Amino acid sequence: MEGKEQSKKKESWYWNWLIGSVALRVILVYFSNNLNLASRPEISTPLTSLRRLAEGYWLKQSSMSPYAGSMYHGSPLLLSLLGPLTAKRIEGQPDHILCSLVFVIADVVSAMFIRATGRNLQIAYSQSLKFLDLVKLSEKSDILPSGDIAALVYLWNPFTIVACVGLSTSPVENLAIILSLYGACRRIAPLAAFGWVMATHLSLYPVILIIPMILLLGYGPDTPPRKLFLQKKYVEVGDTPSNDRCLQEEAVDQPELPYVFSWRPVIHFLFWTSLWLVYVLVLCGVSVKQYGGLWELFKRTYGFMLTVQDLSPNMGVLWYFFAEVFDFFRNFFLIVFHGNILFMILPLAIRLKHRPFFLAFVYIVISSMLKSYPSVGDSALYLGLLGLFVNELADMKFSFFLFCGYIGVSLLSPVMHNLWIWRGTGNANFYFATAMAYACLQIILVVESVSAMLNHDRKLRKLSATKVLDGKT
Q: Can you give the pTM of this predicted structure?
């Protein structure tokens, strides 16, 4: 009875905080004109700005190409979905109220999917520990499940809130990524394929998530390292005359490996991916048929991302670098910067294939750091997903330093931008310094989180070896 009452209290506590986050968003949305967040380069980029989307919709309504000029570079499907809401007005209400409510709903739905994903990961992790005869670890209870923690971190993260209130389309892009990961975690191939296709269509960089998604579909949410099942026992045979310990290695008979890669859900996923991909291309082709067709669409969207045509300041490092680089070397450095993401895919996949969801988290952080036009909405996504690994990353180093660093960058960035643009007492280096600090924080987060996860696996391996040793003796 006490356990049921405690679980009910946790459930009600979670829902109270969720309702509070929605209420906060609605209040801030209603008074967002006073906050002037939509003009902040940390929040709205050339790809996520709702003002640019409204301009593209106006051009489309005027029988002109929405990609005319240099304003809109987003998806034509997103233009068809949100464009009418930018033109529709409710008397006595702010002009942007309808679009803002869509972003609020997207945040809440994303949090619900994160929570459900966390529960699936926790169940799979507990089953793995029980199979390894580490029942005590699987029965360890926390204040809140990791899924609830991750969902609340996502909802109450200031980055998530300002991205929602600041009229950025990042909440919709984040929802597509979370939907794809949830579908892969549950092995629902149509849902995973739909989310991945839409996420890739909206921002291109989620294309690299297909590797962890295939691993999720093939192995499942949690796959302990193979070494845990091929464990070797070290038996102490006594002291040598020099008082040194001598260890003798003895192979242990292990049962058949329980985690075998299954190709059936992967093939199912690839089939639905091709189906959704064709469907999206057909819809896009119909939308831009009179404006140059699909080739013009790819040139204005994906080409715009890859060639970094807009050098307006943002939280990334590419705008400053390509503003300074000689044109002769521009193409070379474009290949280098985008190739950095690709070069990291295979080594990380080999090392973290037993943790496919964590691998997806690492890919998201790397793409958020190296993409052409990053924003705080990208950080909101991976910081929310980080909450899913509170147990595994409990020993992560520099956590307090990272926390203070993110706060410092968040406070210094608008100050440096104001000194440079409005007061004229600074220069571009002031603002770029905060972007460099922001990139360094993300690098430290990736390095330390991967190190903490690998250390966690080593601890499991040692505990498993101890269990085997105790069982033999």
A: 0.90
